[in-house]
Design a protein that fits this description.
This protein is mainly beta and about 240 residues long. The protein has one helix at about 1-15, and strands at about 35-45, 45-60, 65-75, 80-95, 95-100, 110-115, 135, 140-145, 150, 155-160, 160-165, 170, 175-190, 190-195, 200, 205-215, 220-225, 230-240. The model is unreliable at about 1-25 and about 115-125 (pLDDT under 50).
Length: about 240
Amino acid sequence: MRLIAVAGAATLAWGLGIAPAMAGICEVPFMHDGGAVTLTGSGGIQLGAELSFSNVKKISADACEARVQGNATFGLMGLPAGKSKIDYWMSVKNGKASFERNDAAGRRVPINGKFDLRMLGLFAYGQPITRSGQTFPALKFQINIDKQAVQTQPLVVHTGEKTVGSRQSIQTAAGVESCWPIRYTRVIDPTQASFNGLVMPIPGMTSSVTDWFCPKVNMVMKQESQQQGLSSLLEVSSLR
């Protein structure tokens, strides 16, 4: 469960929390010194995070770096939630992020976790969203999980073709917003990892997902999903 929690928290932190679909990844509202975002989850898969940003340097829309600190949690189907502390230096180049942490001597050293910030289709759809019925192609991503676990296989995520629905007004942390629903299927392949010499399975998961992209704030403010007949909700509950 601890390893699944780490995977979920990592996917959460870089999958939804930084989610522009039109502007560059480094241009989200909270990507500045003192910026912060809180994510709240409920349902079968309960994700949550409180993240703050400092030492932000922007080079271009898809190139920047920042120190990201906070906590992320991941609970699965009623089991106790795992918790992961986040304190990374994040560097973004061409939409892909790499991470470093401070070692005991205060030096920045690379960590194994690497994430494509377009993960789960939330960060960049390839072009602006302009109409209902617009589609975006299927994608495949790979995650290396950090956290004292030696992964024997990567975590592979597939997203099916995405289709834009009719624009609707929904309640968000930024008030009532006019947002596009973007629907697709997400498949996480089963894999395994070794932890302290014990090989542990990470089960696969298939979800039907709806991202609610809100142009005014330029973010996905809410994600609804269905997994094995259970509903889950992940939404931005505050940002600055």
